[in-house]
Every structure is written in C-alpha cells, then in structure tokens.
Design brief:
The complex is a heterodimer of chains A (about 475) and B (about 260). By secondary structure, chain A is of the alpha/beta class. Chain A contains 13 helices and 23 strands. Classes of the chains: A alpha/beta (about 475), B alpha/beta (about 260).
Chain lengths: ~475, ~260
C-alpha cells in the first residue's frame, strides 16, 4: 500500500529534462494586444492586405467573446495585455541552407535530440522547425517538390501559395470558432503548411518541432494540411518548452482537409510542454483547436496524440465526416502528474452516410493530477448507417489524483450504432508485486504496466515516435509509485 | 545451507498467522509444505517472496548467507528466489516474451552479466518452450491476460525455466488443474530439478507429490510445522487426512 504511494511520489520528482534557455537576441513586439500589435505582426511578415484584413476581422470578433469556463480545469485568469505576441530570433539575412542557421539554434535542437543535419541525412523525416515564432529551416523541400508536395512555413505559404491558403484557411476552424481560435487567427505568427496533390503518397513522415523559448511569449502557430483525392500524408508534431516560472499561453490551431475522394491524413502529436514544478507553479497553458474535415468519399482522418506535458491542457481534435463512407479516428494518451490538469477528448460529427469513427482514449493520472475525457459523438439525420465505437480507459496511480469522463452522444437516425465502453482502474499492487517478484524495479514495473495500458494508442504512432512516446511516458511518471 | 528459517512469526493486519516456523533447506532438495486450509502455507510463501501485506514480527530467514528479510522483493528475485503464484497476475498489453526478457535482464544485470539482446533471448525462449511443452501463442499474448487456469500455471513454470532460480517456491501450483495439466506442470518442474537448486512445494493435496516427489514433507498447522518426514508422510496424509496429526500434536507438547 504505502509502497505504491511512495513510488508515485518518487516518480513525480523527476525534473523537467528539457528546461534550458537558448541565448539569442529576439526581435519582439512590445507586450500587449491591440490592432497595432496585429499590424506589427503582419508587417513583420510582409503579409498581403487580405491576410491583415482576415486577422483584424478575427481580432474584432475576439473582442466580443469571453474566455470559456466550462472545461474541468482551474487556472489563474490570463492577462492578455501581459503577453508578448511576437518574438522572432534575429537573423542577419535570408537563409538558403542549414549551414547558415544560427549555431546556437542548432545546438538547441541537438539537445532536444533532433539535429537537423542528422534528420536530413539519415532519418528520412522532413522537419519544419518552428523556433518561437519563425520557421528556422525546412528540410527535404527539394525532394518533396519533385512530387508536387508543398511543405513550408505558414508565412512562406502566404507569400508563395496565396490562392491555396486563401481558399482553405479557416474553412474547418473559422476565425471566430471559439475564443482561443479567434485569438490565434488574430495574432498567429507562424506554423506549417502542407499540400499533397492528387494521387500522391508522401514518401516520408512530415514533421514539425515546436518549441517555446523566449520568456512570456505566447505561441500561436497555425497548421493547415490539404490532401487532394487519392493522396496520403502522415504528419508528426512534437513539442517541448523550457522551464519558466510564469505560465505561458499556447493557443494553436490545426486544420486538416481530406479534400478529395480516398484522401488520407494521419496526424500524430507528442506533446511535452513544461508541466510546471512539483508545487504546480509555472507550466504551459495548452489551449488548442484541432479539427479535420473529411470532405471526400472514403476519405480518412486519424488523430493520434500523446499528451504528457503542459500545466493545463484543453483540446479536442475533431473530425467532420461529410463524405460518404469517410472515417474518423482519435487515439489518445493523456498523462497528468503533480498538479497538471487535462480536459481533452474529441468530437466526431457524422454528416455523410455510412461514416465511421473510432475513439480510443487512455487517461493516466498520478500525483494530484486531474484528467478529464470529454467527447462528443454527433450522428446527424442524414448520416444513415453510421457507426461509432468509443473506448475510454482511465488508470490511477496513487490516491490523490482524479479521472473524469464526460461523454456526449447524439444520434438523430435509427440505422446508426454507437458503442461506448469505459473503465477506471488503479494500478494494482498485485501487478507491481508480480513484476518485482520477477526481478523488475518498481519504476520499471510501473513503466511496463502503463505502457501496456497505452498499447492500443502507441501502435498507431509511427515507429520512431512510438519509441519516443514510451520514453516520455517513463519520464513523466518517474517517481509516481513506490 | 541454502535457506534457514528460524522461529519465524508473521502477521496480517495484526493477526498472527505464522507462529514460529523452523525450516532448513539444502541445495538439491525438494521440500513439500502441506497443511489444511488456513494453516499459513501461502503466508509463508508470501513472506519469503517479500509481499508487502505481511509483517514479520519475530525470527530470521537466512538465504545463501544473507538476511533475506532485509532484501526488497526485486532483490530477492535477482538473488534467485522465485515464487510461482497461486493466482498469477494479468498485465494487459504487456507481451509475455517482452516481460520475461526484461525480468531476465534485470537478474543478469544484478549478477554482473551482459544483458541479452532479442536474438539471444529468443533462442533461450525457444529452447525452454520445447522443454516445457509451451504453446508459442502463449509467448505472444499479454502476460496471463485471458489465459485459462492451466495456461497461467504453465506460464509460471515457464517463467521459472527461463529465469533459472536457485530457490523456487511453488504456491498451490496444483490448484485448479485437471490431471493432465497437473502432469504437464509437474513434468516441467522435474526437468528443472538440479543439485544446485532447491524447490519448496506448498500444497494442500498430496496428488502433486505423486509427480514431484519430495525429499521431505512438513505438515503446517496453525502457523507451526508440527510434523516432518519423508515422502511417505504425504501418502499417510492422503490416506488419513490431517486430523490424526492434530490429535498426535495435542497429545505431546510442541517443539520450540
């Protein structure tokens, strides 16, 4: 008994491994938010007039909105005038290759284990690295270009592919969708853009590595992925942030569009933003809007997320299933330890006939962490013969944490079926003893049991990501059971 | 001497279950502990393995010259103490082979041996699988998850074969097994008998001892070993039940 709680506490004592600050001069906007700030950002990025107008419209709408209070999380109110909305590492000139990138920046990436040169040379992963607000280097662009795949920073897309951006920007997550999406639309500083032409299968996993560096900078990135008929793309997103005492806001927007018939997008996230210290001080507020639209027949969008970081997480990667026979999937592992809070889940909106969705959510709570699953399955009248399967499992480590489930199900026709399974279990003392009797340490036992619990989600991740996710889980829960 | 238990007292939630156990086991020996339900057999097995729920209140246990009670459960395991569980625990999502590899490597590391890679490990597994007549599907499933009672017990003995303990404690390994499964499990155990290893069989019934023939049989009653003998003692118990031992004990004072 006592052993178990002790381990939980020990695991919780692991320091945040990625908490270092890179010393580079930043080119930043002054604190605060006004139309002036937005014009500053837009000007910094040499944006066309329509882009600025879009931002301003979003900002004006945002001013009429109030911050949502319905999530099952508690945090101090955010002072939106106390945030720096734009911070870019100072660069001397336009970069054409990695060799010109600030070595200090490259070292940061190396500490994170993603040396760009190495990535480019060895791993076959194209990385669009976002350092604070500006994309530093985009790799493999040439190789992808041959296939007609566009993979670049959002700013570049606005300049180079304005028609594509204009057509799709805000088509899944409208500028005024919700409070944080509207804020993002007004002040987003960069992000990634990806376009896969008809019939093309991306030969490599596309990847972005986000990192918040400068103090008190909100990170507002925006990702837009468009997949034409018969195309396939797998996209990886990973995040780390250095240690900071003040809470930092991260309000991103991701839009996925499976535009044509049989288009497929697989989007995987491993998130380990700074979770705050053992007393719950500091850490990232991760308030993110992620949504995909299956417009084409037989199209498919799959979200896989492993969320181990952030002080407060608030996100619901969703799929609008418009095309007939389209498929939406959501696989999630959410870990909370110490004073972390997560309110996460998904929305599957069935609009087209014979649409299918699968939800597998694994919540792990340790320390004093609070984990909520919130999911909506909405089967519209016209979505006949649709199916959903949901499985929500919670695992508790220790007796001071919590797990909560809020499933919402609406079915407006009689030919569809919806299944929901839920379970909550405590990590068993007998399981831990069994492992120990075979020679494993308590920590290894906990890792093993927790990883087994998450297996259904991990197997959806691309190989190299799955390994990283397992390690991350170990680090996040270190010291959490005795 | 491999194991020496002296005047061992242990309680669960304040109730004394073991009331002064004395037992000596040498390498190469097979000992059987028999006794009626509630006599403390499983408690003894649990105390030796280091289960948290039991509190040792008196006495000492020396294993290979070390104070066993000072060691954490995983240290005991790494030192070669193995417990075949009466109720093997399910660990969903954890591959049985992967689990065993982690266990074996933890033990090897403790002994200062190099950890085995997947290829070397699989070779060992295949060899033991043949020896134990274990079905390959058992290896690819999650640890004990959805296993039948017989499969679980066989898996325990398979773990024992791979981990090669010095002292194996079999806790009611025969319970819940039909006669065929019992024979397979017992055959497996017999193949693992070595002159450098010892086995402690804890059982309620004599029938397992038809297959795993012990060198010594001890009768445990109300937390004490009240009678010890050779393998023929088991047969006597089978024939006459435990009552005659009880009567005999009541007629003469218990040896300390």
């Amino acid at each position: 008994m006592s052993t178990e709680t002790n381990t939980i506490e020990e695991l919780a004592n692991q320091e945040y491994k990625w908490g270092f600050v890179t010393d580079i001069e930043a080119d930043a906007a002054p604190k605060g938010l006004s139309e002036g700030t937005i014009r500053f950002i837009s000007a910094k990025k040499n944006e066309p007039e329509w882009m600025l107008e879009w931002r301003l419209k979003a900002y004006r709408h945002w001013l009429t909105m109030t911050e949502p209070r319905w999530p099952n999380v508690r945090y101090n109110r955010i002072d939106y005038q106390d945030i720096v909305y734009y911070s870019a590492p100072k660069q001397k000139k336009q970069l054409t290759s990695l060799t010109e990138v600030d070595p200090e920046l490259l070292r940061t990436y190396e500490k994170l284990g993603i040396s760009l040169q190495e990535q480019e040379r060895l791993s076959g992963v194209a990385v669009d690295a976002v350092f604070d607000s500006v994309s530093v280097a985009t790799t493999f662009k040439g190789k992808l270009k041959e296939l007609g795949i566009i993979f670049c920073s959002f700013s570049e897309a606005v300049r180079e592919h304005p028609d594509l951006v204009r057509e799709h920007l805000g088509s899944v997550v409208p500028a005024g969708d919700n409070f944080f999406a509207a804020l993002n639309a007004a002040v987003f500083s960069d992000g990634s853009f990806c376009y896969i032409p008809k019939g093309v299968r991306s030969p490599m996993e596309l990847s972005t590595y986000f990192r918040i560096n400068a103090a008190d900078t909100g990170q507002f990135e925006r990702t837009l992925i468009v997949a034409e008929a018969g195309s396939y793309v797998s996209y990886l997103e990973g995040c780390t942030a250095p240690m900071r005492d003040n809470n930092q806001l991260h309000a991103a927007v991701v839009e996925l569009i499976a535009l044509g018939d049989n288009a497929q997008i697989k989007y995987s996230t491993v998130q380990n933003w700074y979770p705050g210290d053992k007393e719950g001080r500091g850490g990232i507020y991760n308030f993110v809007t992620k949504r995909g639209k299956c417009a084409g027949k037989n199209s498919k969008i799959s979200w896989t997320q492993v969320e181990t970081g952030s002080a407060v997480t608030w996100k619901y990667p969703s799929v609008l299933l418009q095309g007939e026979n389209s498929v939406g999937e959501f696989y999630s592992v959410a870990v909370v330890n110490n004073y972390q809070q997560a309110d996460t889940g998904t929305k599957m909106i069935h609009i087209g006939k014979n649409t299918r969705s699968t939800i597998v959510s694994k919540g792990i709570s340790a320390g004093r962490g609070q984990n909520s699953y919130r999911g909506l399955v909405d089967v519209k009248k016209g979505a006949t013969h649709s199916r959903n399967f949901s499985q929500c499992d919670s695992l508790l480590l220790g007796d001071k944490c919590g797990a909560h489930t809020f499933p919402y199900i609406e079915v407006k026709n009689t030919s569809s079926t919806v299944e929901h399974e839920a379970s909550t279990s405590k990590i068993g003392e007998d399981q831990i003893f069994y492992c120990k009797q075979r020679g494993l340490s308590t920590e290894d036992a906990v890792n093993l049991i927790v990883n087994g619990f998450c297996k259904e989600v991990f197997r959806e991740l691309p190989m190299e990501f799955a390994v990283e996710a397992q390690k991350l889980l170990g680090v996040s829960l270190e010291g959490s059971v005795g | 001497m491999m194991l020496e238990i002296k005047n061992l007292h242990a309680s669960v939630n304040g109730t004394e279950i073991l009331k002064g156990i004395n037992l000596k086991i040498n390498a190469g020996e097979v000992h059987a502990i028999m006794g009626p339900n509630g006599s403390g057999k499983s408690t003894l097995a649990g105390v030796l393995a280091g289960r948290d729920a039991y509190e040792v209140t008196q006495g000492e246990v020396t294993y290979e010259g070390k104070n066993l009670l000072d060691l954490a459960p995983e240290e005991r395991a790494r030192e070669g103490v193995f417990l075949a569980f009466q109720y093997p625990v399910e660990i969903p999502g954890v591959n049985n082979t992967y689990f065993l590899k982690a266990a074996l490597n933890a033990i090897r590391k403790h002994k200062g041996l190099e950890e085995l890679d997947a290829v070397d490990f699989l070779q060992i597994v295949k060899e033991k699988m043949k020896l134990m007549e274990i079905d390959e599907s058992l290896l690819n499933r999650s640890v004990n998850e959805g296993f039948s009672g017989g499969e679980k017990k066989r898996n325990e003995i398979f773990h024992m074969a791979v981990l090669q303990p010095r002292l194996a404690i079999l806790d009611e390994t025969d319970s819940g097994l039909d006669i065929d499964a019992l024979r397979v499990v017992a055959d497996g155990v017999n193949k693992l008998r070595r002159k450098e290893n010892a086995i402690l069989v804890v059982t309620h019934y004599q029938r397992l001892l038809n297959y795993i023939v012990p060198d010594f049989v001890h009768v445990l009653m109300d937390g004490r070993i009240v009678k010890s003998g050779g393998k023929e003692l088991a047969l006597q118990l089978e024939e006459r039940g435990y009552d005659w031992v009880k009567d005999e004990v009541e007629r003469q004072p218990v040896q300390a």
